[in-house]
Amino acid sequence: MASKVADFPTLLADRMESRPVVRGGPATRGRAVAAVLAPAVAAIGALLAHQLIRNKQMPMSWVNSLPTWLHPYPVVLESLLASSVLLAAVQWAWQPLRPWVRHHAPLLTGAILMFSLWELITLKLGWLVLPYFPGPDQVLAGMVEDRKLLFESTWHSLRLLLSGYATGVAAGLVTGILIGWFPHVRYWGMPVLKVIGPIPATALVPLVMTLFSQSLIWGTALIGFAVWFPVTMLTASGIANVRLSYLDVARTLGAGRMYLIFRVAIPAALPHIFLGLFMGLGASFLTLIVAETLGVKAGLGYYQQLQKGYMEYDKMFASLLIMAVFFSGIMTLLFKARDRVLGWQKGVIRW
Predict the structure, then answer these.
(1) Are 179 and 261 in contact, with CB atoms under 8 Å apart?
(2) For 260-300, how does the pLDDT look when each residue is reduced to its tens digit (9 = 90+)?
(3) Which among 53, 72, 76, 54 is positioned nearest to 63, based on CA atoms?
(4) Domain locations in the chain?
(5) Distance between CA atoms of 208 and 250, rounded to whole angstroms?
(6) What is the pTM of this model?
(7) What top-level class would CATH report for the domain 147-343?
(8) How far apart, in whole angstroms, are the C-alpha atoms of residue 58 and residue 134?
(9) What is the distance between the terminal CA atoms of the chain, rounded to a whole angstrom?
(10) Measuring CA to CA, which residue among 86, 80, 69, 71 is closest to residue 46?
């Protein structure tokens, strides 16, 4: 028995030496190199498909009269190829950049493949017919052609979205804190909230257009109402479910009502509040497009409806592409704010 115990360290060392090393091994390094070079390979493949596969449909756009090297889509692919090669070289020389490049390289590869697939099923193979489903080259060309109007439309949408979202968040936080903290306000406020809150904001378009003559005001009110309900509900839920032990400790140390609300209850309810902010932001996107489509004579929704009337489907898809980038950017900023404010939750709650 003693000899077996004495031989245990030796047996353990032999077992550790015979176990394959995964971290930092050749297989891991090979996968890392493949991930870093994947965007460049995907860009080369997309360029070859664009140049070698014949078009089954004739694109209807001013881009046809331009030289081949001035088409927007291959220029974008060539830029992505050059950027991918540059990032691969820089991350090899500068080690702190490696995790970021290795994390985002597969995402960039997927985006390039998606654009290539888009071109294949529209322009190259003709599975989706023109002019209703233009390829990426026509959409990017429409974006370049109407860049000034698209910029103005994006600015109008941003102004209306921020004004309505800020109004809804402010109103939702106030009513949520009042309902969550004060029992008498909760008694009267919750029934009203349950009756009025579930009404879709888009159903109130005729009412707000009657109440307000200016489109910016009624658009702001409509988006604010769409944001107000989820922010109020989740703020009230977070305030009402603060642990009593937190409040008891603060009261024992002499905290007053205002201190309990603003220094104890609201910080403890921040996870619920941010959830309401995210839900309200999603509702604001939908309400914004509906408002611009039905009555606000500006913005991306109005531009899209206008181009559809003129059968300029390439420009309509260009506005959709800008909406995707626009809304995704705003959502990313809110995620960054959440990560910064709730940094103390890392390791406690998985986001």
Answers:
(1) no
(2) 888 888 888 998 999 999 999 999 999 998 888 887 788 88
(3) 72
(4) 16-137, 147-343
(5) 45
(6) 0.80
(7) mainly alpha
(8) 10
(9) 50
(10) 80
